Amino acid sequence: MREGQTAVIHRADYQAPAYWIDTVELCFDLDPAKTRVLNRMRIRRNPDVPPQPLKLDGDELNLARVLVNGQGTSFKMEGGRLVLENLPEGSEPFELEIFTTCCPAKNSKLMGLYVSNDSFFTQCEAEGFRRITYFLDRPDVMASYTVLLRADKRKYPVLLSNGNLVDHGDLEDGRHFAKWVDPFRKPCYLFALVAGQLVAREQKIVARNGKEHLLQVFVRPGDLDKTEHAMNSLMASVAWDEARFGLPLDLERFMIVATSDFNMGAMENKGLNIFNTKYVLANQATATDTDFGNIESVVGHEYFHNWTGNRVTCRDWFQLSLKEGLTVFRDQEFSQDLAGEASARAVKRIEDVRVLRTAQFPEDAGPMAHPVRPDQYLEINNFYTVTVYEKGAEVVRMMQTLVGREGFERGMTLYFQRHDGHAVTCDDFAQAIADANTQSPLYEKLGQFKRWYSQAGTPRVRAVPQWEAGTGTWRLQLSQSNPPTPGQADKQPQVIPIAWGLIGQDGRELASGMHVLTEAHDTLVVENLASEPVPSLLRGFSAPVILDFDYSDGQLLALLEHDTDPFNRWEAAQRLAVRSALAAIHHGGEVTLDAHFVEAMRHILRHPTLDSAFKELVLTLPAETYIAEQLDVVDPQHVHAVRESMRQQLATALQPDWEAAYEANKDSGAYSPDPVSSGRRALAGLALTHLCIAARLSSDTVWPGKAYQRFKDASNMTDRFNALSALVVGGSDLARPALQKFHAMFKDEALVLDKWFALQAGAPDRGGNVLPAVKQLMQHPDFNVRNPNRARSLIFSYCSANPGAFHRADAAGYVFWSDRVMELDAINPQVAARLARALDRWRKLAEPMRGAAREAIARVAAKPDLSNDVREVVTRALAE
């Protein structure tokens, strides 16, 4: 069932399929208006399931023929399903042949087989294969695939599918063919097909076992010069996975293909990864350091899926984090290992935690809260979430913490020994890691640890210290709780590893260790101390929890100055900044930054040995969304005003230091996206932004002029875009001509134009000017709402990433949101559902915004022909 489906799917109702599909032979005659698909399957009954009809999923297909063992047969349709009842009895396999047609050119959902820029692409996860042919579209049905592609050779000279190319040649009438065989069984969601005018960067590599492999990155002609970094990232990924986990590349070739029309970041189809161009194309003129880092991470992520997701896959979609959480953890480890030095590793860890706390923690506290392994869904596409991915990665990270790095690698080895070639569950993975480490806390507490998979919400750990000066004993009373979430009222204690250290009065570290909290209440005791220490708790963010500890300002300043743990050093600055913001918000007055905090920031900025990247993180104030999450009732415009005031005070109080930091870091030498050079550019960009903010407050024109000159003269996109952003955020009169010049320079670079749209939609709101600008930009010749990247760059940047501008007192932002959700839903329900999430937290809003937001959500919910994707989101948002 697809559109019109109203039944909620429950994990507890899982049943094995009544039939297994052993082999699949697909023949495609590709045509944009009418693609013909011949599907021959070898099927057998599952002897463990009572006899029943074969029900094959389908969606928007034209059925032409059904044959069983070469003979016509009766069938019926149940909704979108093809039902076959008169099938051969017994356990012997039978042949089923299905001939269908579809129209890829009209497939705006970008699920199944579709056309983008006159080329064919597929996206089958989670349930897109049913839009190609009738099939048992579920991940636990794994088959061997042979694929024959036929198409016009002039229009589609490149024909790609999964696995290894075994034959190709010319046909009559200017057509040609390619035959691909995938030697590994796979679920249908990993099927892929690409055909079009493409060129490739190629690289041959030799694995540790001596085998040669061909790596290919396919792009449109004209983009080949932007593929070197993606190829380098792919080579690094192959080498890292074999070195770290002993997992080799298992195909003759591995292919990446980039397309500009894609709902996701990328897709790990076996041997043929299809990517959003955003995560492939990069050179120094068009891509920022962040883009280079994201490409490395996403290329690694999709390649690592070759084993954690492809060779071992999910039994059902409730187990999605089995592959996604594990693989996010693996790509995080990959990026940290490539970063090399401890400081660069720490920067990567802080960046990952910042995403978790600004995106996943709010999800855990909202109407779409769900466990890492959900219990039910109406539309599976809605559960590709930060909870499944990022929180799932933190659950895997805790496993590694509890068993150690070498123990985790032993567990991975056991996992593949047990389950290679199978569709399994999150429990199977956790069991393998524990069984390989029988002396570990994970093994002892495995049943309790698995509550991380089943309980939604973010646990809170309350820590209260007690100091006995007479005995030199320091105690920490710990307690844990987890508030109710939709469908889950009572939560049980979870296994929470707490890395800790104690800092002395002189700044030296006195003690450190790991305490595993398993009970609702527990006590950590440290003896023989000469003086009361400052505790450094949850080092490295050792568990995805909220830590409640009543730090004094002095203690936080001490941690910021002396802590040996970089994460908690950064966290101390964040806590001090949030404390200042909340004080101003609660008391309704002007925010005034504490002089000690300002001096601490000055000390960080001037510090002679701290990395520039770390300085940039410490000196960046907490996001408005993170500040808002600390409040029971939120006025986003007030939060924005308070944070802007704090930024202005840092800009003016530290102006000489910003100037020195800019001058010291603006020249990073010949362009390289390495951590040190990227850190220097990041700090220079932050300094330039603050200098432009200070200039506006003092009506100075010098620094905006320097920023504009930097914008014009920059030798790379990072410096150019940092300068442009500084002018926009600083409110300079030079912002408008700079934006015009930027567009003229990059009007033919789609990904760069996405940055141009996003910067304007995310700009500070001065007098309500952002929404009119966004509406005007929607009429721009370069805006196309049907392209997901372009829609996200403008509409999402306003509705989801600019709360001060979106949450207007006149509710115009909410009206705009509801119009766009309904418009996008008719084109691409997946994109629409993600936009619908922008008002997840409407209940926290202050009036009149709260009532206006509810009215906007109800308006969307009242639309009769909504997709399941959007309906599930808005229905859950409105549920009491």
TrEMBL record:
Location of the Peptidase M1 alanyl aminopeptidase C-terminal domain: 554-879
GO molecular function per UniProt: alanyl aminopeptidase activity; metallopeptidase activity; zinc ion binding
Keywords for the protein's UniProt record, in alphabetical order: Aminopeptidase, Hydrolase, Metal-binding, Metalloprotease, Protease, Zinc
Family matches, as SUPFAM superfamilies: Leukotriene A4 hydrolase N-terminal domain (SSF63737), Metalloproteases ('zincins'), catalytic domain (SSF55486)
InterPro entries referenced in this protein's UniProt entry, alphabetically: Aminopeptidase_N-like_N (IPR045357), Aminopeptidase_N-like_N_sf (IPR042097), PepN_Ig-like_sf (IPR038438), Peptidase_M1 (IPR001930), Peptidase_M1_dom (IPR014782), Peptidase_M1_pepN (IPR012779), Peptidase_M1_pepN_C (IPR024601), Peptidase_M1_pepN_C_sf (IPR037144)
Cofactor entry: Zn(2+)
Domain Peptidase M1 alanyl aminopeptidase Ig-like fold: 457-549
Top-level class of the enzyme under EC nomenclature: hydrolase
GO BP annotations listed: proteolysis
Domain Peptidase M1 membrane alanine aminopeptidase: 230-438
Enzyme nomenclature, EC number: 3.4.11.2
Pfam family, one: DUF3458_C
Domain Aminopeptidase N-like N-terminal: 79-190
Catalysed reactions, as listed in the record: Release of an N-terminal amino acid, Xaa-|-Yaa- from a peptide, amide or arylamide. Xaa is preferably Ala, but may be most amino acids including Pro (slow action). When a terminal hydrophobic residue is followed by a prolyl residue, the two may be released as an intact Xaa-Pro dipeptide
Family, per entry: Belongs to the peptidase M1 family.
UniProt-listed NCBIfam families: pepN_proteo
Protein name as annotated: Aminopeptidase N
Source organism of this protein record: Ramlibacter humi
